[in-house]
Amino acid sequence: MSKSQVLRAFARANGLVIRFWANERGHAEAPHFHVRKEGKWEIKVRIDAGASARFVWEIKWQKGAKGPDSKLLADLAKLVDEHRATLLDEWDRSTLNER
Predict the structure, then answer these.
(1) What is the pTM of this model?
(2) How many domains does the chain divide into?
């Protein structure tokens, strides 16, 4: 299974949508992607690179008081860590950015 297939499989298994928005080209934001649980919440996850890489996310919106649970966030952090290069490549392709 390719790395991009692993990301899609993770999203499907957890009922998530993972997106890179093409209209974010040229923004001064760090590379990131959006993860959405339909009708419940959306988070933005940064793809930090280098020695200082860490898992950083923020709520974009949520319905009610419950956002993503701690297990999902831990699994997502592991996925980002293991597939950082693939995610950064996808950011570059989707947003036409040059790092």
Answers:
(1) 0.82
(2) 1
* Cβ neighbours, 10 Å, residue 10: 18
What is the span of the domain harbouring residue 56? 3-93
The answer to whether 41 and 62 have CB atoms below 8 angstroms apart is yes
Q: Is residue 18 part of a domain?
A: yes
Burial class, 12, CB count within 10 angstroms (exposed 0-12 / middle 13-18 / buried 19+): exposed
Asked whether residue 80 is domain-assigned, the answer is yes
Length of the chain: 99
Query: How does pLDDT run across 38-68, given as a tens digit for each residue?
Result: 999 999 999 877 766 788 899 999 998 889 9
Question: What tens digit of pLDDT does each residue of 14-29 get?
Answer: 999 988 876 665 566 7
Q: What are phi and psi of 46, to 5 degrees?
A: -80, 150
- Neighbour count for residue 92 (Cβ, 10 Å): 14
Q: Is residue 99 part of a domain?
A: no
Number of H helices, E strands in the chain: 3, 4
